[in-house]
Specification:
homodimer; about 700 residues; 20 helices
């Protein structure tokens, strides 16, 4: 009985999210599109985004088709259902990305128009509503997709047992994560390619202003912001959320089988995620521009409401279901860790600091010494920023494990129960992602609206209103970035546990990932190299891709002097196409490498070494992601601070100091927007590769050993 | 019987090294000291080095005394012998550093004089002889110290069993490694403080040339080269060598006890190290300037001779002793890995590249784009440079383990035999450190000689001779740097295994460092943070320390205008004193933190988590060390290439391109000379802390758990 109930609640909650998302979309679309100027600028960005999506999805579609074919052939009898799950997972992620991008690129001019007509409050209302389209959509689709698939294989074609069923659903998660890797890392290469090329040819070579419409890369640059921040982050969170639910379900299925409990623990993650969705939908309505005197406070109010409602819901539900509340505490521990990571990352990247420890102000001082000092201190503080985040994750990990092994409901209170609770902490952290992602997507929308309004000669008040909206967006964005990294880390830890559980199930004995075993230690070393190599390839990829685009911009200027004179239009689409296909060309080898090395490690060194490999990858990857995201953020904000009125612009060396800060920001750009945040997704992809392909890797390993 | 034989051979080989070192010292001292100019410049450096040593050793002496007291109190009955070993280890390392620094700062003017009088060959002869003083001294003292202590506690006061005896000798290694940390990391902060301050006040503010004697930091800068490259690297290699021997001995003692073999495996590492010393002493005599037409070839000849002789010696000896030759192969596997790491690191930092893959030339291209591109590509190639090195270590690890478990001598052929073979590979890698370090120390000597000769208005031919000597020195230095990092990594892996073996012995059951256990995973995460935090502190420490020194240089210029006019002498000693005491002040907290966190992790999370902690630290630390050393080296060489005649200086943008390259070099300086190479030593220190303090940590853990 509990299975139908749990799945129904999850499905309905998912449908509710999707419905509210669509209603918000309609509401946003009805708003005034602003004057001719606003519409023109915004339309170019909108069309550019469509070009990007068209090219990327064509390549992704081909990739998905090939992979689906491989899967359906490699897995024997289970091949077709896994391939179908995989295709649906890819499609779900792509659809969510599409919706987010569509609404974001349409909402910017409407936000701008509202700011120009009615000021702060109406503009905030539209921007946040538009953000919630993306937020609720990804949260909703995750649940609808997973429950629909569960229903399909359990009720409609009831051919599979619970553990096998979750293996089939791993295909969904794998699909979501490969798409997310392209969206996040590919989007990251795209946006930085455009940014760098526009600056080098436009600002440096031709000395035209930033964002000048004569620059053929200008639209690609604006599209890049949406591509990276809206579609990329959305796909990233979607994928972490699905992975967390799936890992917890896989571990729960083991508990269910061990203790012959019908589906309680395997389906509980879906239920918790459903409760999170409900809390998010309600939380959205707490964000009212007229509630508070500041957009930031309004967003905070929504966060508190969502979190509070979610806690009440989960505690009540578990109490009613007579499941030990320790499981609820695990979910809450995850949530607390996520918030902690977001806040502490912000200490290293905002001028506020904490208790007099102000890294950003040190970096401002270093900008006055030399660019080298600034680079060195940004790098050092980036390293240090990993400390609280790692400790936060470690605390959540240990606490939820202890909660799980001390819980008293049937099936809990054992080692596996503890590990299950760790996975639940990841589910808890991501349960309210509908709300988190809504306020995150709000950021790039108001950022874009500010750009639109500036080029559309709007009133001074309208610009000030947009600035205030933007400031609130930046703070949220900084916190979400940490949150996204933390949630991915905990999800990956859950996947790591799920992988080990799957190996145990497959080999029918408990494996030990004993680092004292040279093979396993070797695996851990190789795993640690994966995020290292991947980041290097991404950064070098931006460099190479920018080289191609710079060449094309120069060619356009050479062939048609009318472009610089402003009499003829540059070919914006050409730049978008170079950035898109170049990004995928740079990314494809690293992605295939990551998947290939994962399979090869398991084949050559064995399944226990493969577990060591995942462990090495997550330790190294988590820390590198924090280093690069936070160092990049800190350099960016150092530059912003030096440009702000808070800084003394009368210093005779101001120009030099500003140049130093600009250099820091340029170094930080691919750190924070390309390599850093992509590592999360990479970790999810390789963990899922190991889990999904486990039976095949095991057979390859047996074959490889037989060679000797 | 075998114990007396093994120990005697080791002791005699050690004494032989020390003797040859002293004879070389006498020979070098007899050489002509050059003209008045050369003597004056060189004397200032020599006196500066004495100032540095005096200040540093005073603080280190106090530190050693306090720590010795703590040890003798904390270890109960074993306290005094461990404390004595510890004091002797510290003193041995300090003496070796002193000798190296003394000869290096005296040999530079003699090399310069020989180059001026006789040209290339005599100058090469003196420089290499002087280098061999340091090389053979550190190799010899390691053996003399260890065997003398063994003799003391085994024959003179035969109160201890073999395993306890090796625990007492761990104190020697701990002493060597704490001194090495101060020598390497403290020296690294010293040299970069001086370098940065001299540049900022001298070159930028006052626009006086580099190395100008009017700059109060000029001598500190020159001393810094010797302090970092001679004393620092020497202490680092000394410490890795002792740690490798000790780890293998600890593991060997377990085998001896398990299979009741009298002392064969525990003393074999000493014997192997002794054979390496003999090979090094003979190898030194193969380096003859008149043998080849190029100093580099002469050095290579010595390397081949030493390696060949060592291989013959170890194969013959093990064959005579009827120990399975697989153990010799393990030692050779380590050696091969070390050379492989050195060579592949060089691919990323030299213009030659490999198979058309030329990272350095890409970086030269990036310098033409912008400084940001150069920083980004240097960082990326630094990351990628970790790949072959890690794979080299992994291959040595897995190969030697397989050799050990397939060996057939009594006591081998089991899991512990495999682990023992891993430790032997570290011993093999470091056995010929007497020769390796000789050719490495040659580098800074000729580098300094070149500086002396330039300021002493010598002939053009003499300068060219010195340039050729210097070029050979740079190649050797690049390879040794990789070698040092690789050898430390393998030594730390051996220590890691020794730690686990000690825990097994203490708890009387086999522990498992199972990463699937949340506590152990938590330990691994915390361990990974240690090198991360340590590097950040070192880099920020350079920044802060340079701030203090800059202030003092400005004060000197202000208070005495005669300094800039060249009529009065600046206070060189004041700068040396600031750099030295500042370096230790910046380093002390990080060192105590590393030791403290190690003990706390074991106390709170338990001994198995402490093993996870060491594993996390070595994985993260090894990769970070490679990233920072190699990125730094690549930036340095990019600048050198752009300054060389190979590069087109007529480019109208040359000045900008050169500025970009200089910036890369400035960022790279603390990477490659402070943080990167210090991580090795840090890893040794924390591994030894865990091993040495194990009984105390175990008691603290029991107490901590009893609180709940």
């Amino acid at each position: 009985m509990s299975d139908v109930l749990f799945v129904s609640v999850a499905l309905l909650a998912g449908l509710l999210s999707v419905l509210v998302s669509l209603l918000s979309y309609r509401a946003v679309m009805k708003a005034d599109e602003g004057n001719e100027n606003m519409r023109e600028v915004s339309r170019l960005i909108q069309d550019g985004a469509v070009s990007y999506i068209r090219i990327q999805y064509r390549i992704l579609g081909a990739f998905t088709a090939v992979f689906a074919l491989i899967i359906s052939l490699a897995f024997g009898e289970l091949g077709p259902p896994i391939a179908i799950s995989y295709i649906i997972g890819s499609t779900a992620s792509m659809s969510a990305g599409y919706v987010g991008l569509a609404v974001a690129t349409r909402a910017n001019r409407r936000t701008a128009a509202a700011a120009a007509d009615g000021g702060l409050n109406p503009a905030f209302n539209i921007a946040f509503r538009a953000g919630s389209v993306m937020g609720l959509m990804i949260a909703g689709i995750a649940l609808v997709g997973l429950t629909a698939l569960y229903w399909l294989w359990d009720f409609v074609f009831p051919a599979y047992d619970a553990p096998v069923l979750w293996e089939i659903l791993t295909g969904f998660s794998f699909g979501a994560s490969t798409v997310a890797l392209f969206a996040k890392a590919g989007g990251g290469i795209f946006t930085k390619t455009a940014d760098m090329s526009a600056d080098i040819v436009g600002k440096i070579e031709q000395q035209i202003p930033e964002d000048d419409p004569r620059n053929p890369a200008a639209i690609a640059d604006a599209v890049g912001d949406n591509v990276g921040d809206v579609a990329g982050t959305g796909a990233d969170i979607f994928d972490s959320n699905v992975a967390a639910i799936l890992a917890a379900a896989l571990l729960g299925a083991t508990l269910d089988v061990m203790f012959t409990i019908p589906f309680a623990y395997s389906l509980l993650p879906l239920l918790i995620a459903g409760l999170g969705n409900i809390a998010s939908v309600i939380g959205i309505f707490f964000v009212r521009p007229d509630c508070c005197d500041d957009p930031g406070t309004a967003l905070d109010r929504g966060t508190y409401a969502t979190t509070g409602i979610f806690m009440v819901l989960i505690l009540t539900t578990l109490w009613v279901l007579q499941i030990d509340l320790m499981i609820a505490f695990s979910a809450i521990a995850g949530l607390v860790a996520g918030v902690f990571i977001g806040i502490t990352s912000n200490v290293f990247t905002s001028q506020r600091g904490l208790f007099g420890f102000k890294p950003l102000m040190d970096m401002v001082d270093d900008s006055e010494k030399s660019a080298a000092n600034l680079i060195l201190s940004g790098y050092s503080y980036g390293l240090l920023s990993a400390v609280p985040s790692v400790l936060g994750v470690v605390a959540a990990l240990v606490a939820s494990f202890i909660f799980g092994i001390t819980a008293t409901s049937p099936g809990l209170g054992v080692w596996q129960g503890g590990i299950y609770a760790v996975a639940i902490s990841a589910v808890g952290l991501l349960a309210t992602n509908g709300f988190t992602m809504s306020s995150d997507s709000y950021g790039p929308i108001v950022d874009n609206a500010r750009g639109v309004i500036e080029q559309a000669d709007a009133s001074e008040e309208a610009i000030i209103a947009c600035d205030r909206l933007d400031a609130a967006g930046n703070t949220v964005k900084a916190i979400t970035k940490g949150f996204a990294i933390g949630s991915a880390a905990i999800s990956v830890l859950a996947l790591f546990a799920a992988f080990i559980e799957s190996v145990d199930a497959l080999l029918a004995f408990e494996i030990s990932v004993n680092l004292a075993d040279p093979f396993i230690l070797a695996g851990a070393f190789i795993g640690a190299l994966v995020p290292v190599t991947f980041s290097a390839f991404l950064i070098l990829g931006v460099d190479r891709n920018a080289g191609r685009m710079i060449e094309d911009i120069r060619r356009q200027f050479d062939e048609d002097p009318g472009i610089l004179a402003g009499t003829s239009k540059p070919d914006y689409d050409r730049c978008i196409s170079i950035a898109t296909s170049g990004a995928i060309r740079e990314l494809m080898p690293s992605t295939l490498m990551a998947i290939g090395v994962t399979i090869l490690t398991g084949m050559i060194l064995g399944l226990e070494a493969l577990a060591g490999y995942l462990g090495g990858a997550v330790i190294m990857g988590f820390i590198m992601a924090l280093l690069m995201s936070n160092a990049g953020g800190a350099w960016d904000n150092t530059k912003k601070y030096i440009e702000s009125p808070d800084y003394n612009h009368d210093d005779p060396r101001y120009e030099q100091i500003h140049d130093n800060a600009v250099l820091g920001d340029m170094v930080g750009d691919p750190f924070k927007d390309t390599a850093g945040p992509s590592i999360n997704t990479l970790l999810v992809v390789i963990s899922l590769t190991a889990t999904l392909f486990l039976p095949i890797i095991a057979r390859l390993n047996v074959w490889f050993i037989s060679l000797f």
